[in-house]
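Aggregate trends can hide what the representation actually does to any particular protein. For completeness, the protein is quoted in full, as a sequence line and a line of structure tokens.
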Amino acid sequence: MAYPLACARSVPHHVAYCLWKYGSREQKEKLLPSIFKAEVIVSECISEPEVGSDADRISTRTVRDGDSYIMSGEKRFTASVGVADVFLVFAITSPDVHPTRRIGVFIVEKDRGNIHPAEEFSALGWKGLRIVSELVFNGVRVPRENLVGQEDQGFDILMDMLDQERVVVAGGVIGPARICLEIARRYSEERMAFHRQIRAFEGVSFKIGDLALMIEAASLLRIKAARMIDRDLPAVKETAFKVTTEAMQILGGIGYTDKYLVERHSRDACGFTIGVGISEIMRLVIQREVYKEAGLSGQ
């Protein structure tokens, strides 16, 4: 349950961070204590059937109606949404302005009515985490006081939240990566081939060394990013991370079975190269920040 547990723990962190930094005093007093005590389960609703990494193109929208908003749209791939009591929903507030200035963030309690969860996906990994295929908002009335921050601040809040999220998720990945390395190291000492331990072959021992170096680098990178965020500095480039499944190669055929935890961790790790931004998007973000630091424009 390492990955599902890390994700289930991190989602409340992301939601609580948004409320702590951008929410009103009333919102903080109402929700933060309950979130931290695990009395209220929360979920963030960003991705949609036709929108993933291009978050500024979301189509879930709201229409002002007196002192309320009427929300309609669909969200997808939302962790813990099947059991959540409160959703943090990113939705359009002003459709006729620039995409980055048209999104708002709303606190939506599940008992408001007209919220319909669809079928749950059976994912490759992350077993035990309730990931719903779609959550439909069909004319949900949300009071004005449930708006987090300003009507046009949602995209900025999302970008800030993703920096935080990637640091937290990176921490959740490093632990299982160390477990896989330890399993592979022990196996390389126990497994005999051609009358010697397989660690005697450089094709195996070099992998062990490379994995140890990668994990150490990822750990230090995560710490650097966290310290930058603590100092209120942008940490976009520093939050990228890489997860490897080379340990399975060292175990060979037995690594592909469920005898060792490497198989499960390999399946779970795939989700983290997608969940907070696919690897290609991470590379796009990194190159853009490199060019910015040089005073140039990235793609």
User: Anything to note?
Assistant: Residues 237-244 have pLDDT under 50 and may be disordered.
